[in-house]
Amino acid sequence: MKINIGFVGYGCFGPSIIPYFLKHPYVGKVALAELIPERRAAAAEKFGLTEIYNSFDDMLEHGKDINCIAIHAQRHIHGDMVIRALKAGKHVYSAVPMAMTREEVEQIVDLVGRTRLTYVLGENRFYDPTVLLCREMYSSGGFGKFLYGEAQYTHDMSHFTSYKIYKGRDNWAGKPPMFYSTHSVSMILSIINEHVTRVSCMGCIDKEWDHMFAPGKNLWDNPYINETAIMRLSGGGVMRINEFRRRVWKSPQTYINCINGTKASYERSMDMHTIQTGSSMDDIRIEDVSERVRPVRNKDGSAGYAAIMPAERLPEAYGEMKIHHDGAHPFAIDDFFRAVRTGKLPPVNAWNAARYMMPGIIAHQSAMRDGEPLAVPDLGNPPADWSRL
Ligand SMILES: NC(=O)c1ccc[n+]([C@@H]2O[C@H](COP(=O)([O-])OP(=O)(O)OC[C@H]3O[C@@H](n4cnc5c(N)ncnc54)[C@H](O)[C@@H]3O)[C@@H](O)[C@H]2O)c1
After folding, report:
1. What whole-number percentage of the chain has pLDDT above 70?
2. Quick check: CB of 69 below 6 Å from ligand 1?
């Protein structure tokens, strides 16, 4: 079966990510939908695309032989697009985040369960080198019982807000930070395979940006530029999640600070990664594992895959391609293609995606009530008879 992709949204991220769809060996063709004429023209020129639609609606109506949709439109409109694509019988690859409301998340899980169409959330942090290392160690018992973890996605957005694309669109630029917490939440949950049961969250008010982060200034009446949540996990442990959109250090950072278990801990300090074992100062052992997880620098200065990443499983055509975000996206996209081809359930399926998304949605509700602890609904596991990729 040839997979015909309808790629939606050729904005800032489009030019970097679309080559992974174009070059995959299972792909038949890639069509594009984009609202802005100059962007449609740029995509046609750069990638030689010939089947181009003026909008997602136009593509759904007329792209009859398109069997998969890859959504890369703005962060707050994925949920509705995913639901409409699934209802139209298409497999879906969706950029993060999954959706903005509990109801949309529930509807996506329900639709995927009933149709058995492939849904993949492009949560690249599932394939992050540190996450791979900690998942391997946790599943073999090396950490013992999980006690505590910290993760964050910090991305100062002052450069974004100066982009002309945001001018006049500030009503969605002030999105609650916790609505984009799947990077950080997924890192810890996918290591320990648990879900969040309760959350308490506090927000930080920043007066400098109150033209965007203030009641009445965005679609959510969100006053918070940074949010910090404490989450109770189904196994009894706790994690702390930071979602910061303002910080002094401008480069984006997504990482785990620590995983503490009853037998060992992982810790990161700047670019140094260590595993610590031992139960007293006399027998403490600190192993530097940085070389396994640190992205490699190629001779030409470009980024290469970290040693722990199984790059050999990727299509040969990806070998020559520039990698972004530590090289994790190609794995998510390849898993999407393999899931569509085989009908098997991908790792970042709708049920896992819901577990990565729902805590952030409820966390923001808690922040709006000044930290009141709230229960986080769990939508359960995928059907047991759906064989795994
Ligand atoms: N690490 C990551 O996983 C990562 C990194 C970067 C971006 N992303 C995701 O990629 C997505 C795109 O990000 P971006 O920075 O390129 O956004 P952007 O705002 O620059 O571009 C979005 C594009 O979607 C188009 N669009 C919106 N509605 C449409 C419609 N109905 N039909 C056709 N086109 C439509 C817009 O015109 C725009 O060009 C976001 O969801 C973002 O979260 C993920």
Report:
1. 97
2. no
